Amino acid sequence: MDTTAHFERNSFAYPIGDYLQSLPQEMRICGLQDYLEELWNKCKEKQQSNSEYIKLFIGKNLYNNRRIFDQYISGLRNPTLQFINLFFEYCKSLGIMVDYKNLQEKRFKFGHGGNAATAILPTTISPKLAYLVGAMRDGTLALCGKYEVSYSQKNKEWLYFVRNLIKETFSPSNEPRIAQENRVTLSNRPIFEFLHNIFEIPIGDKVHWLTPNIINKSPFAIQRYYIRGFFDADGLSELGFCQANYQVLVDIKTMLEKNGIKCCPIHKRPLKEGQKHNMFTMLISRKDNNHIKFIKTIGCSNESKAKYFISLRP
């Protein structure tokens, strides 16, 4: 399945903001030395205090040996996010502008080992990233001796599609793989922490996972791809959604109806034997061709779900 045929060109993206504060502070950034050296040279021009004192001041309670500062600046050692945050704040205190665009296309990792998995963590939400977040409605973040991200689906073709999206979005140093014929999985802690901390995806059971705040705040140009990923992963043949989390369906209904796609009321399904949680269903209204509006506006990138559209078209 060709991913470029299913997404508009990334002419828009919604900024995530200064997510350096949200991610684990022991995470490290690779390849930032040129920009750090540029900032440090500007600091030395402006500051009145001795440079060696400033190195210790910035790294107070972070390191005891100021040579670590030099190693971070020169790239001999990949700096932690904690150091980057402290250094950036010091630059700002001197009136030096910090441009977070310099973090784009940089690789993130944990630890010093050369074998540690790395990934590029986007600074904006693109349609492809929004889709991957929506598709996590049928995915899992699992701690099982490793930091595993997985998406489940019977349709193997869609799993390959998702695998390619992961590679295009995060450029992981390790390859996502198809496991047990029904899921795509990847052990990559930077991506795991990014999804967990930025999009609030719980580890393990996702019953109580609400719509990520940043998705709720995004424009519909981004939300529509989140909804598409949601539908492709966990949508109903009747053209709708079924979830144990009532509020999640309320949010989807609100997004769609604000943009002219009417939905039916949300219904509670009878609790079946063996089920732990009540399930709720929301269908797209058939009145005034709202289901056709959904097909044209939201669309589908999962052939096993797109086949439902054929019988629905006028």
Q: How are the elements arranged and paired?
A:
Blueprint: E1 14-15, E2 28-30, H1 33-46, H2 51-58, H3 67-74, H4 81-93, E3 107-109, E4 119-120, E5 124-125, H5 127-135, E6 139-143, E7 147-152, H6 156-170, E8 177-179, E9 183-187, H7 189-198, H8 213-217, H9 220-234, E10 235-236, E11 240-243, H10 246-258, E12 267-268, E13 280-283, H11 290-297, H12 303-312
Antiparallel strand pairs: 1-5, 2-3, 3-4, 6-7, 7-9, 8-9, 10-11, 11-13, 12-13
What does this structure look like?
With 314 residues, the protein is an alpha+beta fold. 41% of the residues lie in helices and 14% in strands. It has twelve helices and 13 strands. The strands form four sheets. The protein has a four-stranded antiparallel β-sheet, covered by helices on one side. A four-stranded antiparallel β-sheet has the order 10-11-13-12. Helix 5 packs parallel to helix 9. The protein is elongated and about 75 Å long.
